[in-house]
Design a protein that fits this description.
The complex is a heterodimer of chains A (562) and B (340). Chain A is mainly α and 562 residues long. Chain A has one domain (2-45, 54-326, 338-560): Orthogonal Bundle (MetI-like fold), CATH 1.10.3720. Chain A is 71% helix and 1% strand. Chain A has helices spanning 2-10, 12-41, 56-62, 65-98, 104-111, 113-116, 120-130, 149-173, 177-185, 190-219, 222-227, 234-244, 248-275, 293-322, 348-377, 382-393, 400-411, 425-435, 437-449, 454-461, 466-477, 479-495, 511-520, 524-556; strands at residues 323-325, 329-332. A two-stranded antiparallel ribbon of chain A has the order 1-2. In chain A, a hairpin with a 3-residue loop joins strand 1 (323-325) and strand 2. By secondary structure, chain B is α/β, with parallel strands linked by helices. Chain B has 2 domains: 20-126 and 250-301, 3-Layer(aba) Sandwich (D-Maltodextrin-Binding Protein, domain 2), CATH 3.40.190.10; 127-249 and 316-332, Periplasmic binding protein-like II (D-Maltodextrin-Binding Protein, domain 2, 3-Layer(aba) Sandwich). Helices cover 41% and strands 19% of the residues of chain B. Chain B contains 12 helices and 11 strands. Chain B has helices at residues 2-19, 35-48, 61-70, 85-93, 135-141, 170-183, 185-196, 208-214, 225-234, 263-273, 276-282, 314-332; strands at 25-31, 52-58, 79-84, 97-98, 122-134, 161-164, 199-203, 220-224, 238-241, 249-257, 288-289. In chain B, strands 1, 2, 3, 4, 5, 6, 7, 8, 9, 10 and 11 form an 11-stranded mixed beta sheet that branches. In chain B, helix 2 (35-48) links the parallel strand 1 (25-31) and strand 2. Classes of the chains: A mainly alpha (562), B alpha/beta (340).
């Protein structure tokens, strides 16, 4: 605290530069998030013809009898899936970081599986497994239907697991072995060590993971759309208004309601942030777990079970992509991969997706990481810092189709000089970076928070500018997290549908949109095949990251060991 | 290295745009046509209208309509070719359509063209709500083959029927508009209330009930004919039933966007869309065409189904839409927790 304050006094020039960078980030968020959303949200106070009607839409929406049930349905299914996914992801991440189990690399890769493919893939797999013609149907109770709250909760646990697991992995990745040594010397019990050392160290990660899992669950419409049946939630209400009835005004009203959990989450995170203490001081010694079968074996079995379920679901999808015509003709064929038969763009949409995802990762990662650093260690006090902290939390709460619609209204406005971006790949890239900003930011922040501010203080006393400390200490130490952020952006840009479906141009249709189109046309196997192609590409990126991560770790993380 | 990759990525992104800056006029055409129709339609139009190049933006009716309306301040499409007439009427009400009577439009059936002069839209073909009936599942569960909507009220169909939620899907709205058209509003609500007892799920997509009936998820899916025919032609064990007690229908239609920078080319393309040649193309997928002098060649369509169409006043239906949907939502939406 006082270190940073004196820092600012002494290091005026680099702090000024950092301040400029923060303003640039603010401009980026103003143009790519705040202005588009503002253009959409003013519609909440307009009628269809554009006249100002004040709170009439809100009143009309509040008067719908279905509203209360949608709110309640959204809240309880999201809360339930969060309550399942956070402990599960914690145990999984704990097994990876704090236990001696074999196959850690594979487990790390398997944990990501649900975000490696478009969400339609798990939804289709759920139907293939548990639907009325599902493979497991004979063992399900009579009258059980996957279409409804249970289908939603199950699919959301699956879909949100990796997000929570990433955040918790980063939070648990590094610990100061001296704390554990001290606790052991003091004869603290294992439970006590867990409760007083491990959990507080990961508290920020736990709160982040819960906020992320809850917000993702409540804003996602892809899952309730496919497996929700008649079970109404807020996100499907947005879909009905925007896509079903093209009533953007009411869609904006529901979109506003969905921002509430994000705002609550923002304050929760700030609260958690204040409770934190840097876990990795400059004198820290990396914690390396020693083998202990009583802990390792159950954790290994748990991780194995989770990983098998995750791999199994993908296996089902891969199999269904090879089936000639499910469920009537189960002979295997590669014909479903001849995409030109189903979609005018053929394999071209895969090329578009890869270009877009590469650009999103290459451009997004430096922005995410630099901004996270500046917000943690730079001169980010006052209104600017608060505004930016709020801005980076917002994207998580905005349903993709709301963001996509907002982008049309803003970027296509005749008076907007940024209109040249409209219909190009650039707008898809920008949209993807903004849409997935929050989790990327949280992962970067978690990594930076583990570093003692002492590094900056030492840098300052050696009269080294802040950016030197950033470039020569923070980034190298955090390289694994930087790679994680890059791959996260790449993967999500490859799989996203909800926002880009409003933004792609004639030459920029993405593979994930093609999956939706083929499924709509009843070509389930071709849709699964395209989803598997996406999965193969994102999995390759992930494996590359793991390989590169190993090399990086050997090169940059050796100092943490003794 | 990073900069290099970036430059390569940007170059790759911009290359197609640069290569296509050539002499032909590029017309951006928004459509909800099926994917397999895009290539033949483009080829035929470019052959018939020299000097144009069609670039498609295709998506489902709801998404493409939302895009068109959201882009209203600064339209990106030159022409809409193959979109529900209800969507075009929404756009007409917002003064988004360029009035133009295509050469030869008088050959279209009267209810297949805009009543305005000059016209704002012209119809291509009609699609109707239809029942996708899975023969295999029906045999397993001893379900009778329905031939009318009223047959679906049979208690044997309890929990066997899927239909699109009209608040989410244009097909769903088309279906209930048809019921209201044939039965009158009061009896239609009564019918829907009784049908509700047999519905397993209201889906958010218009094609999902038929796609899922084809996969055997439900025995009966209420959807639209073209989807059903395409699935049947893929080999799905479904019958396509156009109920004999009257079905609602919708038109696929064409219009020019007001504010297009390529008005002349857009007009020539729209002239082509009402020709015999274009209708022969439509007739490969649809059974009821705008022109009476072209015989449709599509397979697996029920015979003489044109007689079952409910006469529809599209404009009147469109203006009632909001009220009907509100009423539907109050009665049925979310009131349908799964009956376990």
């Amino acid at each position: 605290m006082s270190g940073t304050a004196t820092l600012r006094l002494r290091m005026a020039p680099d702090m000024r530069l950092a301040r400029i960078a923060l303003w640039l980030a603010a401009a980026l968020f103003a143009a790519a998030l705040v202005a588009p959303m503002a253009m959409l949200l003013v519609r909440a106070a307009q009628d269809q013809a554009g006249a100002f009607v004040g709170l009439a839409n809100v009143a009309a929406y509040a008067g719908t009898p279905a509203l209360a049930s949608s709110v309640w349905n959204s809240v309880w299914t999201s809360a339930l899936s969060t309550a399942i996914v956070v402990p599960l992801a914690f145990a999984y991440a704990y097994a990876l970081a704090r236990a001696c189990i074999p196959l850690k690399g594979l487990f790390r890769a398997a944990m990501l599986i649900p975000i490696l493919a478009p969400t339609l893939l798990p939804a289709l797999a759920m139907i293939t497994l548990f639907g009325n013609q599902g493979l497991f149907r004979p063992w399900l109770p009579e009258g059980f239907s996957v279409y409804g709250p249970w289908g939603i909760v199950a699919a959301q646990v699956f879909a949100n697991f990796p997000h929570a697991a990433i955040i918790l992995s980063v939070a648990l990745a590094t610990a100061d072995a001296r704390l554990y040594e001290a606790a052991t010397v003091l004869r603290a019990s294992r439970l006590r060590i867990f409760l007083t050392v491990t959990l507080p160290g990961a508290a920020y990660g736990l709160v982040s993971a819960a906020v992320v899992a809850f917000t993702l669950a409540i804003t996602d419409f892809g899952i309730p759309k496919v497996v929700g049946g008649n079970f109404n939630v807020l996100a499907t209400d947005v879909y009905k208004q925007v896509v079903g009835q093209q009533n953007f005004n009411m869609g904006a009203v529901v979109g506003l309601v969905l921002l509430v959990p994000a705002v609550v989450g923002f304050f929760l995170e700030r609260w958690a942030g204040r409770q934190r203490a840097a876990t990795l001081s400059g004198r820290a010694v990396a914690y390396v777990p020693a083998p202990r079968p009583a802990r390792d074996l159950p954790l290994f079995l748990l991780a194995l079970a989770v990983a098998l379920v995750l791999v199994g679901i993908v296996g089902v999808a891969a199999w269904s992509s090879l089936v000639a015509f499910w469920p009537w003709n189960l002979s295997l064929t590669l014909a479903n991969y001849d995409f030109a038969r189903f979609d005018a763009n053929g394999w071209g949409s895969v090329v578009t997706s890869v270009q877009m995802a590469l650009l999103a990762a290459l451009l997004g990662t430096p922005v995410v990481f630099t901004l996270a650093y500046l917000l943690e260690r730079g001169p980010a006090r006052g209104a600017l810092g608060t505004a930016l902290r709020l801005a980076v939390t917002m994207p998580l709460a905005i349903p993709g189709l709301v963001l996509g619609l907002a982008y049309i209204l803003f970027f296509n406005h005749p008076a907007n000089p940024l209109g040249v971006l409209y219909g190009t790949l650039a707008i898809l890239v920008l949209n993807s970076i903004v849409h997935f900003y929050t989790v990327a930011h949280l992962a970067a922040t978690a990594a930076i928070r583990q570093l003692d501010p002492e590094f900056e203080a030492v840098g300052a006393s050696l009269k080294v500018p802040l950016w030197h400390t950033f470039a020569r200490v923070t980034v190298p130490i955090s390289l694994p997290a930087v790679l994680e952020v890059a791959v996260y952006l790449f993967v999500n840009a490859m799989t996203t549908v909800s926002a880009v479906i409003f933004l792609y141009g004639p030459a920029t249709k993405t593979a994930s949109v093609a999956v939706v189109h083929m499924d709509e046309a009843g070509q389930q196997s071709a849709a699964a095949a395209m989803a598997c192609v996406i999965l193969a590409i994102t999995a390759a990126a992930k494996l590359l990251q793991i390989a590169a991560g190993g090399a990086v770790e050997r090169a940059t993380q050796r100092w943490r060991r003794r | 290295m990073r900069r290099l990759l970036l430059a390569a990525g940007l170059a790759a992104a911009l290359a197609p745009a640069a290569a296509e800056a050539q002499s032909r006029t590029r017309l951006t055409v928004y459509t909800a046509l099926e994917n397999e129709q895009l290539a033949p339609f483009k080829a035929a139009a470019e052959r018939a209208v020299p000097g144009i190049e069609i670039v498609w933006v295709r998506d489902s009716t709801g998404v493409i309509t939302a895009r068109l309306l959201a882009e209203r301040e600064n339209p990106r499409a030159d022409v809409v070719w193959g979109l529900s007439v209800f969507s075009l009427l929404q756009m007409e009400a917002l003064d988004m359509l360029e009035p133009y009577t295509p050469a030869g439009a008088e050959a279209l059936r009267p209810n297949f063209r805009s009543p305005r002069s000059p016209m704002t839209w012209t119809g291509m073909d009609a699609f109707v709500s239809a029942i996708c009936f899975n023969r295999t599942i029906a045999a397993q569960r001893n379900l009778p083959r329905p031939s009318t909507w009223a047959d679906l009220l049979n208690p044997a169909f309890r929990n066997q029927v899927a239909m699109p939620n009209p608040a989410s899907s244009g097909t769903g709205f088309l279906t209930i508009a048809g019921w209201i058209g044939t039965m009158g509003e009061e009896r239609a609500w009564d019918f829907m209330g009784r049908l509700h007892e047999n519905i397993q799920v209201y889906t958010h997509s218009g094609s999902a009930p038929c796609n899922n009936a084809a996969r055997g998820e439900y025995a009966v899916g209420i959807s639209f004919d073209m989807r059903a025919v395409a699935l049947r032609n893929q080999g799905a064990p479904i019958d396509i039933i156009v109920p004999t007690d009257g079905v609602g229908y919708d038109l696929e239609a064409t219009a020019i966007l007001r504010g297009t920078r390529n008005l002349d080319s857009a007009r020539r393309l729209v002239d082509f869309t009402v020709t015999r040649e274009a209708h022969e193309l439509y007739g490969r997928y649809y059974a009821l065409l705008g022109r009476t002098d072209v015989q449709p060649t599509v397979q697996n369509y029920p015979a003489e189904f044109a007689e079952r169409l409910v006469s529809a006043d599209f404009t009147a239906v469109a203006t009632q839409r909001e009220r009907i949907l509100r009423s539907w939502t109050e009665r049925f939406d979310g009131r349908s927790a799964p009956r376990n």
